[in-house]
């Protein structure tokens, strides 16, 4: 049986490998996250090497190996998106989150479709909001969505009141249980925004109307939560912070 397969792939990450090669991490439609070496990918005339760029949508042919998979061939599936600097910075958050929260060869087509739609929508809408919505949808798809409808300590169902969010305890904390400095304020408005962005239709998105303060609160709470989940800061989120985006 051949170990070759072909699949649609979105490039998450590329780096140089040894003297002449490239190493790439992709999320594919049918095989989930894969990583492979493109031998000769750093030579200027190597087609695969030129096509292997972050955010590229490719059809890849891969030979699965004992230790490392290797790229046999690839072709362009979609013309690359011409991102501006800001769109690119946010696209990098989406691809890094995908890489961090998925396992090799664990197929999940919804994740592939979500990422594909996100890369389109980033060009059309406020990339900051699109990526926040993406992050919520991704956490939901990979089973890591924080508990926000009931207090994580006492289990009390939460109504409209302003409460707290604990990144460490993965969810909302009611006012009775609130006692820790690491908790973020979690107002009723922020929770409504969270529900709105989690359910945002990416094929036919309704106009966004978002209050800056609530957006910032939600972003802070969510990125802290992600930091607790990953145990290490993400380069792309650090970069946004450094650029004041
Ligand atoms: Zn409670």
As for the number of domains, it is 2
Strand order, sheet with most strands: 1-2-3-5-4
Within CATH, the superfamily of the largest domain carries the name Recombination protein O, C-terminal domain
Helical stretch tally: 7
Task: State the helicity in percent bands.
Answer: 25-40%
Bound molecules: zinc ion
The end-to-end span amounts to 50 Å
Task: Indicate the proportion of strand residues.
Answer: 15-25%
CATH architecture verdict of the largest domain: Up-down Bundle
The first-level CATH class name of the largest domain: Mainly Alpha
Give me the secondary-structure category: alpha+beta
Unreliable parts: none
- The beta-strand count equals 8
Oligomer: single chain
Radius of gyration from CA coordinates: 20 Å
Order of secondary-structure elements: EEEHEEHHHEEEHHH
Question: What summary fits the major beta sheet?
Answer: 5 strands, mixed, barrel
Mean pLDDT across residues: 94
